[in-house]
Amino acid sequence: MDPAANAKTPxxxxxxxxxxxxxxxxxxxxxxxxLTPGIVHIGLGNFHRAHQAWYIHQLMQQGQAHDWAIIxxxxxxxxxxxxxxxxxxxxLTTLIELDPTRTSAEVIGPMVDYLxxxxxxxxxxxxxxxxxxxxxxxxxxxxxxxxxxxxGALNTDHQDIRYDAANPNLPRTAFGSIVAALKQRRAxxxxxxxxxxxxxxxxxxxxxxxxxxGLARMxxxxxxxxxxxxxxxxxxxxxxxxxxxxxxxxSQCHILGVDDRAPVSHENFRQWVIEDEFCAGRxxxxxxxxxxxxxxHSYESMKLRILNGGHQLLANVGEILNVPTISSCMQDPDxxxxxxxxxxxxxxxxxxAVPETTAKEYLELVERRFANTAIHDTTRxxxxxxxxxxxxxxxxxxxxxLASGSSVIGLALAEAFWCRMCAGVREDGSEIxxxxxxWENLCETALAARTDPGLWLEQSLxxxxxxxxxxxxxxxxxxxxxxxxxxxxxVLAEYVATNSLSH
Length: 503
Description:
Elements: E1 11-12, E2 25-26, E3 37-42, H1 46-50, H2 52-61, E4 69-73, H3 79-88, E5 93-99, E6 102-108, E7 111-114, H4 122-128, E8 135-138, H5 159-166, H6 174-187, E9 194-197, H7 204-219, H8 221-230, E10 236-239, H9 247-255, E11 258-259, E12 264-266, E13 271-275, E14 291-293, H10 296-320, H11 326-330, H12 333-347, H13 359-370, H14 379-383, H15 386-393, H16 395-404, H17 409-421, H18 439-448, H19 454-457, H20 460-463, H21 471-486, H22 488-499
Parallel strand pairs: 1-11, 2-6, 3-4, 3-8, 4-7, 5-12, 8-9, 13-14
Antiparallel strand pairs: 5-6, 10-13
Keywords: Oxidoreductase
GO molecular function: oxidoreductase activity, acting on the CH-OH group of donors, NAD or NADP as acceptor
Domain Mannitol dehydrogenase N-terminal: 38-286
């Protein structure tokens, strides 16, 4: 007999059905009617729900932070589908924790509304101007900050930024919307809110300040000065592996007894480190494990270089070899040996310890997390937007290594694998579907670089500024030629045999 035939019908997730959930599915102990909003979050996706929203939920479960409920917001048309799904289930989310030994589910409810997705972002601006809102947080991806590449400066020539400067009351971007809301708050005699970036960028708070103040300065210099002097943009580091939602996850949620159309899975690890600089108050986040510190830089450098950089070491060659997930890359002896060797030889030497751990201990933790077979985090997801991720996650280690005169052979190979992946075809002949906002240009250049590798490095927007004939560019050219001629596995074996110290 089919075991599913005896399974109970899963409970449709809504506020009025929480009491009907299976006993082993935890759910809010607080009442929605007791919550009032204090946070607007822009770019509300899986990561926010599994990470920042979970921390607020934990506080609410303790009877705290009931005036810090979350209002979701988006600025892109594709956010409308998520809004529709979440509103249909009263903005509740089922979090499924994936561990190799067990699976557990928890329903969280700190989010109380999701603003309409509309031209001009009128509802978003109005809500951020509300005096009850004291924090506006963002997860808009590393590539969503309109930066001049390899700098923290706003690209004032971008068409969206120019549009917002010319139309400050009906902006297109999150940053233009923030400027417009802060303008209303100033006119109403209110303090600014704290703007909190939760994206994987070194100095993300400083970058967010540059974007908001820089954009304001283009249309209203006095407003820009007021924001800069009175606002707060704390740096932060966020960490939790959160795969994309799949049909299989929805089915797994059903098996656990919950009919959730937008569940989220995550690993059994979270970390949030925030610079304690808030201009309008904050929840007592330290009571649920958040680290409040003035030294965010060391934490974020360790995480971005070892974990996020490590993701790129695995995902690009994994795509070329059609290895489907990060955990399966960690089970592949050739890829794992490459990952460990580059980390130990070329990344860890340039990472500072933090109070709780050394760089080597953090790498060991990352290896355990990446090897979690219950997490089906695809190489495709992790390889997405390499044009933003390589400059942010691998080039800082590369620049430090070059400055200190140490080896860059492995990092050159990592960049060669990215170039080879962007050619758009795996070594088994299958297609790599477009996976970057700049994919067309990347693919064209990657194919041309097969015969002239230097063309790839001339893309200074994402590859840095490396002249031909340097140590790095020569190593890159050599590796790329060998990858095309001999295949990735042979090149992995050559690199590890030549450079590994048997770690």
